[in-house]
Amino acid sequence: MAQPSVFFPRTLTRKQYLIRCLIAFVIVAAAFLFFVGAPADLVRLAGILLQIVVLLAFLYNIFGLSIPRLRNAQLTFLWIVLVFVPFGALVLFAICATAREKSESQRSNVSMHSASGEEKSLKLVEDFNSELMDALDSLGGKKVNALLDTYRFWSSKHLQRAVDGFAFLRREDGWMAQSFSSDLRLR
Fold first, then answer.
1. What per-residue confidence (pLDDT) applies to 187?
2. What is the DSSP letter of 166?
3. What's the 3-state SS for 31-100?
4. CA angle 140, 142, 147 (to 5 degrees)
5. Cα(126)–Cα(32) distance, rounded to whole angstroms?
6. pTM (2 d.p.)
7. Which residues contact 24 (CB under 8 A, 6 or more apart)?
8. What percent of the chain clears pLDDT 90, i.e. is strictly above it?
9. pLDDT per position as a tens digit, 174-186
10. For the segment 88-120, what is each residue's pLDDT rounded down to a tens digit?
11. Distances 79 to 52, 67, 101, 137 between C-alpha atoms, Å
């Protein structure tokens, strides 16, 4: 097994993330100060150096800081898209800096359900779905009073479809719904 990289670790704790962000900020600030204070004959070289340092800091923020931190906090990697939005890097920093650590037991034992517990849970979901379908069917032909009633009806209908789809996937082919529910926990 390959040794983990010092600069590009697999995971980062909150403290490690904040320390590395501070170091990256200091390096970019030093390059900026060199650019600002450069003599007239070195301004062009200082400008190129500043651009290179900022580009490397940007890439390191994605691959060396944010991805390992999101992995440690078990958050979806879609948060990386924020880097490409104006001021999104600050939002991503706030998310990574405030995200809770996930313990090793939480990471390794994502699903600790027994087969009987799984069956009971699935039966409960199916019963809920059945009751929700009956409630929605009982509303057929009734006059709608307001926009809020329409909103509640369609929200309930969408919830019913989602629950029905989840129960179907879980019953027919358990791994599909398991993957789906694991992805939801990561968000």
1. 45
2. H
3. HHHHHHCCCHHHHHHHHHHHHHHHHHHHHHHHHHHHHHHHHHHCCCHHHHHHHHCCCHHHHHHHHHHHCC
4. 105
5. 61
6. 0.54
7. 57, 60, 61, 65
8. 34
9. 554 454 445 444 4
10. 888 999 999 998 887 654 544 444 446 676 777
11. 25, 9, 17, 39
